[in-house]
Structure formats: structure tokens, C-alpha cells
Target: ABC transporter ATP-binding protein
Amino acid sequence: MTALLQTIDLNKRFGGLRVTNNVNFELDEGEVHCLIGPNGAGKSTLFRLFLGEHSPSSGRILYAGEDITHLKPFQRIRKGISVKFQVPGIFAALSVRQNLTIALQHHLEGASLDEEIARLLEFLRLTASADMQAASLSHGQKQWLEIGMAISLKPRLLLLDEPTAGMSPDETYETGEMVRALNADGVTVLAVEHDMAFVRQIAQRVTVLHFGQIFAQGTVAEITANDAVAEIYFGHVDHDD
Ligand SMILES: Nc1ncnc2c1ncn2[C@@H]1O[C@H](COP(=O)(O)OP(=O)(O)OP(=O)(O)O)[C@@H](O)[C@H]1O
Model:
């Protein structure tokens, strides 16, 4: 497998605090990978390093074999990296359709624009809400519209920061199905996530961060069976048997 995203001895310090600590991480092309870890483990910081919103204190970031360590966020987006953050990135006063039109209008026009909007609305389970103001969507639907904005550029790598935060179990499941469909279409996905049912639904591999370091890595089954991982989350290990 070729690594689509790779970090080499990546470090980020805020003053005396080392938040990313010598991280050597590889994301394979074509996989869905989840990044988990206790609060403050450094997950969001790592995401911001990937996106170019933070510059590393030392180390390198490679994307498709190219050194992108010093590229600006917009340059990384042009290379096919797209992100959905937790903070709202939609135009609340506009309709769902208008939001998607804004995201797509630089690439498509006329009939092909209409066709792509219809396809995205269907994919996002938002066809019936197309002409509603984005502000009046449910929390989960807003998240879906944001996913729609993030995938409108047809990214090669999609970064999702807690995509299911605040969602109902049904919405979370539907989001998982969206991620699986995107991945089946060839999109590589890296998601920061707390909901282990969602992680189980989507992830082929999981990386656990702890104090800014890679603490464990493996399949969902390996990670959930790992006593040391349970220990850092709960401070103790519960065995049913
Ligand atoms: N801009 C900053 N300046 C100083 N400290 C920061 C900054 N950003 C993050 N930190 C610190 O870095 C540590 C890791 O934060 P980060 O948000 O990356 O963790 P996280 O794993 O995403 O946590 P959570 O699960 O709570 O979102 C925390 O101690 C945080 O206070």
C-alpha cells in the first residue's frame, strides 16, 4: 500500500507544552482510518497540522509522496485534501440548494450543475429539504450539508473532525453509511471520533493518540481488546468474564 498521508518525526509545541510528540503516522490510500484518544490527546492539533492551520515545530508531512509541510491550507485543498470541522461552515441564511450551488459553481454550470446538486442532495438525504433555509435544518442535517460542502470538490482525502458529534444514533448510522459509500468510490478518509459504534461501522484501522504520541494502532477489534487502551480511557480495565 502507498501512504497517501505520512508524518515523519512530527512535533508541535505551544510554549513549553509538547502537544504533538514525534508522531510517525501513515494513512494508506483507500482506507478509512479513525483517530481516537482521551480529551487533550492532541487529535485536533494533528488535524490542524495536516491541514496547514498550524505549522509544525519540527518534522515533515508528506501527501502522495510530496512534502507539503510548508504549503498553505488553500494549496493543500487544491491537491485534493478536504476537511469538515466541528464548527459550522455553512451559510445559515441560504437554502440547502444555494449552499451546494456556492460550493460547486466554480466547477460546474447549467445542466451538469443541476445534476450534481440533485445527486448530492440524494446522497446527503436532503432532497426533501433542498429549499429549506440551512438554519432550520436539524443538527444532524446541518452536519450532512457540511459533509456535502466538503465533498463537492471531489477530494482524494477527506478529514472529518468528530462528524457525528451531537447526532442521534440513527443520524450517526446514516453518516457512517455515507462515509462507507464515499470510501467505496475511492475517497480515503481520516476521522477523529469518540463514538466507538461509529468507529466500528466505518474504520479499517484505528490509531490511538495519548499525550501527543501514537499509543496504539490496529483494527477496531485489536484496539477494543487492548487493555492498555482501556486503561488510558477509563483508568481501569473491566473484564466481563
Ligand atoms: N493554540 C493552542 N495553544 C496552546 N495550547 C493548545 C493550543 N491548541 C491546543 N492546545 C493544547 O494542546 C493539548 C491538545 O489539544 P487538542 O485540542 O489537540 O486535543 P484533542 O485530542 O483534540 O482533545 P479533545 O478530544 O478534547 O478535542 C491540550 O492540552 C490543549 O490545551
Observations:
- The longest strand covers residues 3-14.
- Residues 92-154 form one domain.
- The chain has nine helices and eleven strands.
- The mean pLDDT is 92.
